[in-house]
Amino acid sequence: MSVNKEIKRVTTHILQKMKMDGERISMLTAYDFSMARIFDDAGMDILLVGDSASNVMAGHETTLPITLDQMIYHAASVVRAIKRSFVVVDLPFGSYQGNSKEALSSAIRIMKETGAHGIKIEGGEEIIESVKRIISSGIPVMGHLGLTPQSIYKFGTYAVRATEEAEAQKLLADAKLLQEAGCFAIVLEKIPALLAKQVAEELRIPIIGIGAGKYVDGQVLVMHDMLGINKEFKPRFLRRYLNLYEQILKASKQYINDVKGRDFPNDNEQY
Ligand SMILES: Nc1nc(=O)c2c([nH]1)NC[C@@H]1CN(c3ccc(C(=O)N[C@@H](CCC(=O)O)C(=O)O)cc3)CN21
Ligand SMILES: CC(C)C(=O)C(=O)O
Ligand SMILES: [Mg+2]
Known about the structure:
Blueprint: H1 12-21, E1 25-29, H2 33-42, E2 46-49, H3 53-56, H4 68-79, E3 86-90, H5 100-114, E4 118-122, H6 128-136, E5 141-146, H7 152-155, H8 165-181, E6 185-189, H9 193-202, E7 207-210, E8 218-221, H10 223-226, H11 244-260
Helix pairs in contact: 2-4, 4-5, 5-6, 8-9
The structure holds 5,10-methenyl-6,7,8-trihydrofolic acid, 3-methyl-2-oxobutanoic acid and magnesium ion.
């Protein structure tokens, strides 16, 4: 279990120590103050303000439409709630692909305007100059390889990635490039468990998986999926810890019933 719940604040140094001690790293997405407060209180090591906000908060089909300003609004809300968790924010599509200068100014806006502790960026060799430039400014960077949802239209599907040898070799090489550039951790999304194991064993930095099996140094899920708020999304890698959709539906129906039936408010619930 958690050896490190007592620590005051999670830092990149502590995450590195967790890998060396074999303590698994817990990471979950958060997009707002109230939920972040609960996850921080629970002892979540990392909170990710994911660009999945585009899907679960705004209702878009993909992560592409969310803007840097919208990510900053979510991230600032999360940061106001936390005492202990390390907060990482996704650089959204279109805020870094232009060049490394654009990437740096987007990362700086996130750090300045939200108080977050680091940023995450999708890709390997293609974005390595941006990664280096952001890291040299003192901002911790988390990599993201495998299924990279901002490139969905390049691939056409959300199917498992790197099942072929050439793609697996490219992923391992990209992971090493990201480590050499100075990334403090890497997310691997939807790739074979044995490939993720090899990456976690060959790299010194923590490897966090989503659909990447049990041999990595930590796990991340989207909060709406983990809590069962999302009825439609159920890939094999997801474990649901609650069925909040059904519970909220039931509570909402009860409230409607109580209002219509003049049961709410009662004598004690008025002035
Ligand atoms: N709610 C939510 N959860 C996520 O994990 C998530 C997002 N949104 N939005 C951004 C990305 C997209 N991600 C995804 C998207 C799809 C699958 C997936 O496995 N989809 C299908 C299979 C599709 C296929 O094989 O072509 C499934 O089984 O549901 C996994 C991760 C992860 N991220
Ligand atoms: C699925 C995780 C890793 C993510 O990038 C997101 O939530 O945006
Ligand atoms: Mg993301």
